Amino acid sequence: MHREKKKATMQFLLEVVDILTNYVKKTFDRSTKVLDFHHPHQLLEGMEGFNLELSDQPESLEQILVDCRDTLKYGVRTGHPRFFNQLSSGLDIIGLAGEWLTSTANTNMFTYEIAPVFVLMEQLTLKKMREMIGWPAGEGDGLFSPGGAISNMYSVMIARYKYFPEVKTKGMSAAPRLVLFTSEHSHYSIKKAGAALGFGTDNVILLSTDERGRVIPADLEAKILDVKQKGYVPLFVNATAGSTVYGAFDPINEIADICEKYNLWLHVDGAWGGGLLMSRKHRHKLNGVERANSVTWNPHKMMGVPLQCSAILVREKGILAGCNSMCAGYLFQPDKQYDVTYDTGDKAIQCGRHVDIFKFWLMWKAKGTIGFEQHIDKCLDLSQYLYNKINNREGFQMVFDGPQHTNVCFWYIPPSLRGMSDSEERREKLHRVAPKIKAMMMESGTTMVGYQPQGNKVNFFRMVVSNAAVTQSDIDFLVDEIERLGQDL
Ligand SMILES: Cc1ncc(COP(=O)(O)O)c(C=O)c1O
């Protein structure tokens, strides 16, 4: 009986693997849909053979296999070569294998005691990333965190700890009114960090940008002076390397000059653009990054590492631990038999921490640094191909010229609006075009691409490429699909 059960368990696992490998195959098959869209109420009501309600009694393994299959069936194939919706996309096979292994090991990153190999991999990989940033001998500190938003939050926390360490014990009342600066185009996580950490969003000052979405350094300096004049204390500046919508790179060197002049913490949010450090052709866009005090870099975006994989890298060693450590006696005993500096978990704001490093380390092994470079260069070439294709094409209007990253932002102007002169009515109509086309794309399941308004600009498409499976034919498909779906609007 025992043997029978073991056999059934192994058979079950093999069948799950079969479901997964079939899904992988279909993901790369352009004749399959990107998604099979259903409204929430439809999924909640239950599809044939697939019910989301939890049951009191155990379900059979056959049903569990159906549940696995249908979960994938009604999801979105983010690795499909025609999925352009998010900054993180693609399905890297080595990364996937790494994630499977990670789940199989099912351990926790907080101590060397229970994750010896993963902890060392994390240390080595962070050092390599710091070398790519340009910090001498790769010295410094860092952690993998649950995403760019959290990495950015770390940067604000350690900046505050650097200048006002007493806040750790006494709270914000021990500090004067502190101010953070970030671009109006920066990711909302900086504002969120301001709210969550007790600065208040009123103390997160947004900086003006040029027509390509890059911070204007003179505006930073003017705003610092203004804040000082009011008696508040400027603390932290975030420079974005690859903004979420425009893919803009703020001028880090000029911002660093100002930070040095006024003694402010400089953080570079390279969640999206950090990957360009791997490319000899494109890394100049981050010139000056080595002057930052901290850097966010998400391998799960531009480098195609499966979610989640984000690093916060810090120039000063020891500050993460100083800021966050609580020395819990039950976990971080100082009298273990090994070098306990490898118990890195107390640097984190979490206790338990998922192993995000293995898949990244494995991909780096499999591709080499050169493989990541080729991937980055290819994605940027594809975006240039799209830009060249639609720039000056009838029915398309660019939001800005000369993209810096893979972000290409554009309006599709349906024939009905082409002859119309600029007016409130035209703006309102144009605002509705991208959401309508997107909804039709999703209903038909052919492709997905993001849209948004920005400042006073009405809804436009934001195309991004980070998936290694994308080819020029997929870019052509997207353009054709937008024209097909939008021609009668
Ligand atoms: C520039 C930038 N920073 C931070 C983030 C947040 O990263 P995550 O989604 O991993 O939290 C994003 C996400 O798109 C981003 O574009």
Structure notes:
The chain is globular. It has 489 residues and is of the alpha/beta class. The longest helix has 34 residues, at 357-390. The protein has helices spanning 2-27, 40-45, 61-73, 93-105, 116-133, 148-163, 167-170, 189-196, 217-229, 252-262, 319-324, 357-390, 415-418, 424-444, 472-486; strands at residues 83-84, 141-145, 178-183, 204-207, 233-240, 265-270, 294-297, 310-314, 396-398, 408-412, 448-454, 457-463. The structure holds pyridoxal-5'-phosphate. Pyridoxal-5'-phosphate (PLP) binds at residues 87, 147-149, 152, 187, 189, 240, 243-244, 269, 271-272, 298, 310. Pyridoxal-5'-phosphate binds at residues 87, 147-149, 152, 187, 189, 240, 243-244, 269, 271-272, 298, 310.
Beta fraction: 5-15%
CATH architecture of the largest domain: 3-Layer(aba) Sandwich
Question: What is the CATH C level class of the largest domain, in words?
Answer: Alpha Beta
Indicate the multimeric state.
single chain
- What is the string of helix and strand elements? HHHEHHEHHEHEHEHEEEHHEEHHEEH
On the 0-100 scale, what is the average pLDDT? 97
Number of domains: 3
Low-confidence stretches: none
The hetero compounds bound to this protein are: pyridoxal-5'-phosphate
Radius of gyration: 24 Å
Shape: globular
- Treating each run of at least 4 consecutive H or I residues as one helix, how many helices? 15
GO biological process, one term: gamma-aminobutyric acid biosynthetic process
InterPro entries: PyrdxlP-dep_de-COase, PyrdxlP-dep_Trfase, PyrdxlP-dep_Trfase_major, Pyridoxal-P_BS
Protein name: Glutamate decarboxylase 1b
Subunit structure: Homodimer.
